[in-house]
Amino acid sequence: MIDWIISPGLTDYEHALREMETRATAIREGTASEAIWLVEHPPLYTAGTSAKPADLTDPNRFPVYTAKRGGQYTYHGPGQRVAYVMLDVAKRGHDVRRFVHDLERWIIAALAEFNVHGEIRDGRVGVWVPRPEKPPLPDGSQREDKIAALGIRLRKWVSFHGLSINVEPDLSHFDGIVPCGIRNYGVTSLVDLGLPVTMADVDVALKKTFADIFPTPGGTDQP
Fold this sequence. Notes:
Elements: E1 3-6, H1 13-29, E2 35-39, E3 44-47, E4 64-66, E5 73-76, E6 80-86, H2 96-112, E7 119-121, E8 124-130, E9 144-155, E10 158-166, E11 186-187, H3 199-213
Parallel strand pairs: 1-2, 3-4, 9-11
Antiparallel strand pairs: 2-6, 3-5, 6-10, 7-8, 8-9, 9-10
Helix pairs in contact: 2-3
């Protein structure tokens, strides 16, 4: 069985790092079950293993943490649901590429619960929403905004870190970085798209769609 943990309020980022590492070790040792941990953080920026200094455009705005996950700079803050994913990838096929793709599929399935059509793009990490109502980009292509980010780390085939979905964050907080190193595209949220969605609604959608994407190895998952 998978433990679903929802932390109220704002969770300190360094505390989250310690808890994830402890849980990942326990999962590998067989002393704890897999877990999905749903949190919100105070405003902060995190630097993944591919982060470029030039992409931190306002380094004094919020605290900056080195995350040791894959990816580049990411913002976390109130109104954003962060899902830390502590799963045994060894039992799920030893396939990191497929695991990341499944995380993207999970985000897309959860967004579809609100009739939001999320898409993935080659060369652009995360999940994107087409914005045909906005003026096109200078090259004439349709505008797209990022609604979800992801970045994971594996230790002895147990994952930690995970994904974030913008529910109702202050979108101006993204201005202090180049999110995931991708310029010329914007950031959106469910509320920015005109949907009166709450954090609790997103949690329900994540739980509902999880088992279709990540069935329990050797059994049936019932989150």
